Amino acid sequence: MPSRRKVARRGLPQCDSASARRTRLGRVLIGSHVRNDDPLAAAEADGADVVQFFLSNPQSWKKPKPREDAEALKASAVPLYVHAPYLINVASANNRIRIPSRKILQDTCDAASEIDATAVIVHGGHADDDDMEAGFERWVKALDYLETDMQVYLENTAGGDHAMARHFDTIGRLWDHIGDKGIGFCLDTCHAWAAGEQLIDAVDRIKALTGRIDLVHCNDSRDAAGSGADRHANFGTGQIDPELLAAVVKAADAPVICETADEGRKDDIAFLREKTSG
């Protein structure tokens, strides 16, 4: 039996190739997270350059079903991002969680490949046995287990005890273990805010730790800084200054997904586009 391959990087730059992340007009690609029934139509309605969606129920271990619109998605010029199910916790000490997590991550990567997605985004999870070092090693094994050419991006998370990717210093420790595996990084502004991390220099600090930011989830936060609450809000309706959100996007120089409510998301995209143009 052939050995399993590590997550393939496929020549992905270390966050220093702005040309790969901009349209011909020279602007940052900005888009939205949408329902998965007709993502291209939803992206068009939002005026989105890129789109993100789930391929299956985010609260289910079930394998994604083949999509009837797979050929249309593959033929589209809109870059596609796939969010992995929320249940995934490859850092878990519990075999009944860790093993299914590895399997559904593999299944999600396989399904994402079928539509020529750019990447799969997955949350960091947590060490439910309170052993952070063991959690880091379980992440290493999870990536070694993956057999895919699909890019995988680790996303920082908002709360949870012994979380792998809540606090930036912990992300740095995790990256010491997995940084050579070809995995990318997705910075979520709401999650960083909820974790108590300062957004003003978040991009610089993450790049110092990981060497890269491949995607930004740009979201306002309903709750106060350090709350640990993962509650997104449309720009200007939450606790984060919209100008600060725009500054994060400009500094990251990576594609952006707004995971905000349907009503108002088009305005969120337009705001970021205005602030990042030129």
UniProtKB/TrEMBL annotation:
Pfam families: AP_endonuc_2. Gene3D superfamilies: Divalent-metal-dependent TIM barrel enzymes. Transmembrane segments: none annotated. Residues 41-274 form the Xylose isomerase-like TIM barrel domain. Keywords: DNA damage, DNA repair, Endonuclease, Hydrolase, Metal-binding, Nuclease, Zinc. GO terms for molecular function: DNA binding; DNA-(apurinic or apyrimidinic site) endonuclease activity; phosphoric diester hydrolase activity; zinc ion binding. Signal peptide: none annotated. InterPro entries: AP_endonuc_2, AP_endonuc_F2_Zn_BS, Xyl_isomerase-like_sf, Xyl_isomerase-like_TIM-brl. It comes from the Bacteria. Belongs to the AP endonuclease 2 family. This is Endonuclease IV.
